[in-house]
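#dry-run=false #mode=assembly
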Amino acid sequence: MSEQRTEGDLRNTGMALKHDRTWDYELDRIVEAVEERNAEKVGLQFPEGLKRRAPHVADDLRDLLPEGVRVLISGQPCYGACDLDTYMMRRTDVFVHFGHSPMKDSEKIIYVPLFSNVEVEPIMEEALDELEVGDVGLVTTAQHMNKFDEMREWLEEREFTVHTRRGDDRLTHEGQVLGCNYASADIDADQVLYVGGGKFHPLGLAMEHPDKTVVIADPVNNVVTVADTEKFLKQRYGAVHRAMDAETWGVVFCTKIGQGRWDVANDIVENNENAYLLTMDEVTPDRLTQFGFDAYVNTGCPRITTDDGPQFKQPMLTPGEYEIAIGEKPLDELSFDTFHGTW
Ligand code: SF4
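#status=ok
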């Protein structure tokens, strides 16, 4: 194969790179892997929010890669590292998964986490008003992991004792949380600082660790808040109450590679003759409405149940909420649904 070209070489020759500079797509690392493996086909998978960037990244890769190497783009929905396009993976020599950190070791897959370049210190400064100097847990998402050491040092310089850990093997990094896993916050501190975008992760964290105060420093929307689970709990209690009269249940088993909980789904249908197991990849309100069950249990990604729950016509519960609805567990045992381990 010809001598490898880098992004820098292209810029020096005056060629305009088409991909946006907000994220680091690590094109040189991809090109290197293609050369090393003598690859002929490269598959690219992007999360939903970045799919519109895919053609530009593919164009730049075509310019960088040796002639004849084909670049394919996955059109499958993608929301996490649990969600790999296995069809494309089997048919390409190099498979690149953008936007998430590795959930499973595989020589075939190149994970490009797309670290954010946003500064975290200004929002951490504002978060000081909500924190007490002393012990503090520190967590963040894959997108800000590149700044994790900086965050820790910044807190230590301000006399905090920072507690961090790597939760379990579903997580790549120390201090990392996922929408379905908060084991990195199992630390010895009554307060946790979450640095990252959105409220879903810190809400799940606060539900999973009700004994801790969760302070949210969101550098993307530039806002500091303290996680409040009340509204979220009300929504979940409402869904459980509505499902209590259900006579028929649809139990969703998700076929995405990192979301399958067969034993959980199977256990429900084996013990309830009015429950039917549904295998699905993408779980949407439209798809479920077709079946006409009174209520549903989702054993796939918990975010679908909790984020999208209100959009489903019939109540959609997590496996734990189902146990409450059928009277196997008391209402006060309602907790957040989490995933552990890989596949
Ligand atoms: S199961 Fe859901 S929350 Fe967990 S990694 Fe996958 S998409 Fe994210």
